[in-house]
């Protein structure tokens, strides 16, 4: 099928950057990103590029070049579906918060609504591409909805998982390790391969069956998350034995069979994918009664929850077993640097734990808004909104967060934290002044020399 017009449903962290790069590399294609969230579309269309709803290094430049040329943002979902030969589904697929599979299975209601909408309005044949992270065999469900509720037209379903990591989305999209396309129709697969071949070498475009493609996405994230949980497990052992986890990671990372990536011990992994994808894997394994497989992967999550809890417990214990009424500054709220995304960020859970102990938390993050922080805490349902507002304050400047604080907890590895005048920060704080470095970002000797009581992960 000749592709001239592409529609992407969902203008989020995946849909936005992916379509911007496809548009940039395919000036002959017309691309429309649609979303039911009118505020989000308005933000994508904002003349001031610093107001885009998503922060990603390099993204604003690409949007500047393509927006209004061959990249459009709109709330008119139906027209965009009708005018396109290829439709990407990039809507959110959070973990279910209700009913069967609560806390484990992916909530597919947004995907299903999309499929029903496509079936309802489509008047010509379409290629439908799964881009959201989905459990294995979701394509089957989409196919069934399209075929049974459509107007007798042909739909080809493809799975094309995204492997971009937030914070490096643009470079990941421009230089992907591989692009994976799963499907049943060779013709449909080749139509999508052609879109990518504008900039991705042919050898890096892999074709598989639908289910291999869906499962590869979950497996990649499960393996990456497992590495983080593995090194985090060793970090606890290091703290008990006097070994240094940074030294251990360096030593094992030089083994070419292991490799050096994803070995940074941390306060715990976050983000919208790792936990959700592993839970999907666990859920699907259990649904086939593969309990050992399910338990094996579930342990990666258990370790991660333990790591977050351990971090706040250590902070409380070190502050003489109480943080009640003490001011704790948190540096960073995003789940990693260079993004304004906070989904599943370890900071949320650490803050929650400290608030339960009646700490006063003062938060600084260069890209996350006060409103977002409060929404994240309210979403936990541990406290009322008023209680959260009472316990947490937000500062636009790091020095305001640390004024009279007893401790600083570093939650995100923002580069700017390394460049601070830490002597000045020390001077503003209560003494003894503690740092709990959840990202092993700072230099221990330097912090010791200033006079800080410095604690990091696995040292
Ligand atoms: C991940 C996958 O990397 C990407 O391929 C997939 O498409 C989506 O999920 P993302 O969630 O954006 O991407 O971030 P990633 O860089 O993988 O980091 C996930 C979490 O692990 C972050 O909280 C990060 O801080 C943490 N992490 C990562 C560590 O704690 N230590 C490490 O060594 C690496
Ligand atoms: P991701 O990280 O997977 O991109 P986001 O939550 O950032 O997730 O983005 C998903 C987007 O999909 C949201 O902006 C949401 O409003 C949009 N969305 C969800 N359901 C639909 C739908 N049926 N039609 C159009 N847009 C939708």
UniProtKB/TrEMBL annotation:
SUPFAM superfamilies: 6-phosphogluconate dehydrogenase C-terminal domain-like (SSF48179), NAD(P)-binding Rossmann-fold domains (SSF51735), UDP-glucose/GDP-mannose dehydrogenase C-terminal domain (SSF52413). Coiled coil: none annotated. It comes from the Bacteria. Its EC number is 1.1.1.22. SMART domains: UDPG_MGDP_dh_C. It catalyses: UDP-alpha-D-glucose + 2 NAD(+) + H2O = UDP-alpha-D-glucuronate + 2 NADH + 3 H(+). Residues 329-444 form the UDP-glucose/GDP-mannose dehydrogenase C-terminal domain. Keywords: NAD, Oxidoreductase. InterPro entries: 6-PGluconate_DH-like_C_sf, NAD(P)-bd_dom_sf, UDP-Glc/GDP-Man, UDP-Glc/GDP-Man_DH_C, UDP-Glc/GDP-Man_DH_C_sf, UDP-Glc/GDP-Man_DH_dimer, UDP-Glc/GDP-Man_DH_N, UDPglc_DH_euk. Pfam families: UDPG_MGDP_dh, UDPG_MGDP_dh_C, UDPG_MGDP_dh_N. Pathway: Nucleotide-sugar biosynthesis; UDP-alpha-D-glucuronate biosynthesis; UDP-alpha-D-glucuronate from UDP-alpha-D-glucose: step 1/1. Belongs to the UDP-glucose/GDP-mannose dehydrogenase family. This is UDP-glucose 6-dehydrogenase. The lineage of its organism: Bacteria, Pseudomonadati, Bacteroidota, Flavobacteriia, Flavobacteriales.
